[in-house]
Design brief:
Largest sheet: 5 strands, parallel
Number of domains: 2
CATH superfamily of the largest domain: Response regulator
Structural class: alpha/beta
Helix content: 25-40%
Order of helices and strands: EHEHEHEHEHEEEEEHEEEEEHH
Oligomer: single chain
Strand order of the largest sheet: 2-1-3-4-5
Shape: elongated
Number of strands: 15
Strand content: 25-35%
Radius of gyration: 26 Å
CATH topology of the largest domain: Rossmann fold
């Protein structure tokens, strides 16, 4: 499944691992990544991995306790759920930043309730990160301490003028102190924005019509110049419906 969460199980009891594997298999958003019966081996492997994972971790294990292992992972961004028979360790579990605590023996209902709570927090965090990546925070009109959030998808077009960029959206216009070239660099990875003029960048999702060198953006109209036409028109051609019979 796309955007599934990788799970690691660390428990010295193979039976406990099998139970967790069965429960994880019932959760569509989860997939098994690794299982370990030796905590030191698990720590060595997990410490080198950068992907955020969901770790089901026993507490009472030989050589290294789950609490100590979790303490060594505090600098990582993994989500840890302790699975243990000892309720007295609950407070210590949260001191090492565990997300939740499952008391053995637990059934599928208990497991699903805890996992869904952790996943809800995870996806909320991911959504906020994604929103911030898809937005600018603007300090407009030189007002210190005041920032305005503008979603990139809401930008119709941008106009560079005298070391300022004017940003036009369906509801508001903004002006920031930077050049159009600097703005182009910030939007380089966004597939919807194209430079069509030395002074203009447009969001292709707002294009209504192209007539010669004029681009109709609904509320606005901008001009396209030969210097910037090629890349933009290549994109338009890739989105144009043409019968194969006309190309043959």
């Amino acid at each position: 499944m796309k955007n599934s969460i990788s799970c690691i199980i660390i428990d010295d009891d193979p039976t406990a691992i099998n139970i967790l594997q069965d429960h994880i298999a019932e959760m569509p958003r989860l997939k098994i990544h690794r299982t370990f019966t030796k905590p030191i081996e698990a720590l060595s492997e997990i410490s080198t991995e950068s992907n955020k994972q969901l770790i089901f971790l026993d507490i009472d294990m030989p050589a290294m306790s789950g609490l100590r292992l979790a303490d060594n992972l505090k600098h990582k961004s993994h989500n840890i759920i302790f699975t243990t028979s000892y309720p007295e360790f609950a407070l210590d579990a949260f001191k090492v930043r565990a997300k939740h605590y499952l008391l053995k023996p637990f059934n599928m209902g208990d497991f699903a309730e805890v996992v869904n709570e952790v996943l809800s927090e995870y996806y909320d965090t991911q959504r906020l990160v994604q929103e911030n990546e898809e937005a600018f925070f603007l300090r407009t009109n030189g007002e210190r301490g005041r920032l305005t959030k503008v979603l990139k998808k809401d930008i119709i077009y941008l106009q560079g003028s005298n070391n300022h960029v004017h940003i036009y959206t369906p509801t508001n216009d903004y002006s920031v102190y930077m050049t159009i070239k600097e703005m182009e660099e910030k939007l380089r990875e966004n597939e919807h924005f194209y430079r069509v003029h030395k002074s203009y960048m447009i969001n292709t999702t707002f294009v209504k019509e192209i007539n010669g060198h004029k681009i109709d953006l609904g509320k606005y109209e901008v001009l396209m110049t030969p210097q910037y036409k090629a890349a933009f028109m290549d994109y338009i051609e890739s989105q144009t419906l043409v019968s194969k019979r006309l190309r043959d």
